[in-house]
Amino acid sequence: MATPENEVVDTAEARPRGRRGLVQQEIFDQATSLFAQRGYAGTSLQDIADAVGLTRPALYHYFRNKEELLAKLVAEVTVEAATDISKIARRKALSAEEKVREIVRHTVRSNGLHAERFRLLIRSEADLPEGVREAYEANRKSVLHSLSRVIEQGIDAGVFRAQMPQVAALGILGITNWVAWWYHPGSSFDLDAVSEELADFAVHGLAAELGRPTSAGPVGILRSMRREIDRLENLLQGED
Fold first, then answer.
1. Please, which residues bridge with residue 160 across strands?
2. Start and end of every HTH tetR-type domain (predicted)?
3. 155 partner at 20 to 30 Å CA-CA among 23, 97, 123, 138?
4. 143-192 pLDDT, tens per residue?
């Protein structure tokens, strides 16, 4: 059955609690690390059991197979993002600008704090089992739909220039997702400061420019984004 664009799809059960939950979390953490090192296809359940210090039969008391571990990863990375962004997009008390800022700040912080898991999921896209892939794609579409709708609201309100909302949303998500590759703990950049800078970047790129005709279509969007990327690149060069 088709999944609506803005529907969040969960692929894992509720988070377990108590000692069992602690063991499951340790297994998940070790599996994530091994998936990152060897790839999903190159990691066996025996590898995971060895890393945790369990026998393979004991491991089955906590997870049925690798697919279940991958489904949990998809849930933590994409379900939470889709749910949180959908909530921000529905907040009536926020303007379109404020919603974009909140979405960008949230996404940047999440990608910076959980960079390894995010990178792993992107690299594993081709290996995702069918059921997990469907949930992954549905939640990515939900995020895109939420942000596109917010941008459309800003255009209707006259605070954002005329443009293709989905193209602009893809551009913003591409920039925020890239944080998982270049931000790292110990960086001279504070993650909160990075999230604020990129929130400004996104809003400035979308905003209607006073005294200048608005430009619709991807060419206008790309020109505006190039100006903002040049500004951000100058900022990042200060870390070199």
1. 207
2. 21-81
3. 138
4. 999 999 999 999 999 999 999 999 999 999 999 999 999 888 777 889 99
Q: Which single residue is written with the structure tokens 């551009």? A: 171
Position 220 scores a pLDDT of: 58
Give the residue carrying structure tokens 């549905």: 138
Residue with tokens 């255009």: 155
How far apart, in whole angstroms, are the C-alpha atoms of residue 148 and residue 46? 43
Contact partners, residue 114, CB within 8 Å, separation at least 6: 76, 77, 180
d(CA 132, CA 40) in angstroms, rounded, equals 13
Pick the CATH number of 13-64 from 3.40.50.300, 1.10.10.60, 1.10.10.10, 1.10.1200.10: 1.10.10.60
Domain boundaries, the chain: 13-64, 70-239
Topology (CATH level 3) of domain 70-239: Tetracycline Repressor; domain 2 (1.10.357)
Helix, coil or strand: residue 160: strand
Residue ranges in 124-217 assigned as alpha helix (H):
130-157, 165-177, 179-182, 191-206
Per-residue pLDDT tens digits for 15-71: 445 788 899 999 998 998 898 888 888 899 999 999 999 999 999 999 988 888 888
